[in-house]
Amino acid sequence: MQWRAGTVVEQVRRWPGAVEYSVALDEAADPPVRALAYTAMVGEPAVGERVLLNASALLRGLGTGGLAFVVARTDHLPADPETGPGHIVKARYTPMQQMLLAVDEQDSPHHADLADADDLAGMPVVVADLHSALPAVLAGIRSTHPHARVAYVMTDGGALPAAFSRAVAGLADAGWLASTITVGQAFGGDHEAVTTHTGLLAARYVVGADVAVVTQGPGNVGTGTRWGYSGVGCADALHAAEVLGGHGIALLRVSGADLRERHHGISHHSRTAYGRALLTAADVPVTTLPDAELDALVREQLRTLVDTARARLTVVEVPADGLLEALHTSPVALRTMGRGLDSDPAPFLAAAAAGVHAAALTDSAVSGRP
């Protein structure tokens, strides 16, 4: 951990749960840096206030959005929050641990609803490798079922604080997300849950969701090895959906612009998670891609994946008509691995196709009820 001290120069922008600042470091030769403060943890520093920063990822140039993080305010302590129920600790045994009320713990008003809950009753569960797929999945869902209630179940493979995601804030503000449920060590959602299993059950019985989307927070981890990446957790999420009676939908990570061979077409992340780690059946939506050569490659890779997978994968063809138009309605920017919709439409079309398929499976879509 690399510490830096500095003084707040200005507030750059804010969204629910987080404020971004420009901070002048004590090292006079260094230019100001962007630093993020999570308001639930450190409050809101004022211009001219001194702060302590964790600058480790920033100094190493890692994919954290080019940010340092405010660890503490040297001259001001945030007021203690009101004492209330809840004793589930997340980011456990770190200096920034949080004590929170989990939706599934005994103090929760929803504990009785979840105590013996064991069945998702066929609720579609879309599982994605990357957080950036979330808005595109929602665009696909809404193109078929504009009134669907969608819960985002955020796992802890990437960012732990939900407030790091401007996409989640924007989707919630636009009414596209009914609720965010942070599970495992992730925290800061509308509801906390101890496991992915209780997060999914809360989506059904507390949020009343028609569809759940499960993916890690922003910032996946990868090592360039077959198994050393956080997206392998997609298999675990699909296992949870299956054991609880949900309808698992495996979203393919696809790219036509990624120059790395292991990620071109269907990423090896999807091929490993769904072909090797997954032990239960799942649907795999696919749609026609505008690049004919890429489309042919994806279908060839998908045939191999289905033929060699340990689990039964059912390929579902989703018409491409209307998908691009649906993606253009997103209230938040569509970007993945530094690329937008125009430069690499494939990942967003694959995500939207998964959303369309999920929406078609909902009871409310079939009945036509809002």
What does the model show?
With 370 residues, the protein is an alpha/beta fold. It is 29% helix and 24% strand. The strands form 6 sheets. The chain has a 6-stranded parallel beta sheet with strand order 11-10-9-12-8-13, with helices on both faces. Strand 9, helix 5 and strand 10 form a beta-alpha-beta unit. Helix 4 crosses helix 11 and helix 7 packs across helix 8. It is globular. The C terminus is likely disordered.
Backbone shape = globular
Biggest sheet statistics: 6 strands, parallel
Mean pLDDT: 94
Give the strand content. Answer: 15-25%
| DSSP helix fraction | 25-40%
How are strands sequenced across the largest beta sheet?
11-10-9-12-8-13
> How many extended strands?
19
Compute the number of helices. 12
Q: Would you tell me the structural class of the helices and strands? A: alpha/beta
- What gyration radius follows from the Cα positions, in whole Å? 21 Å
Unreliable segments of 5+ consecutive residues:
365-370
For the record, give the distance between the C-alpha atoms at the N and C termini, rounded to a whole number: 50 Å
List the helices and strands and how they pair.
Blueprint: E1 3-15, E2 18-25, E3 33-38, H1 39-42, E4 50-54, H2 56-60, E5 68-73, E6 88-90, E7 98-100, H3 111-114, E8 124-127, H4 134-144, E9 150-155, H5 166-173, E10 179-183, E11 191-193, H6 196-205, E12 211-216, H7 233-243, E13 247-250, E14 254-255, E15 265-266, H8 268-277, E16 282-286, H9 292-308, E17 313-317, H10 323-327, E18 335-336, E19 339-340, H11 345-361, H12 363-367
Parallel strand pairs: 3-5, 8-12, 8-13, 9-10, 9-12, 10-11, 16-17
Antiparallel strand pairs: 1-2, 1-4, 2-3, 4-5, 6-7, 14-15, 18-19
Helix pairs in contact: 4-11, 7-8
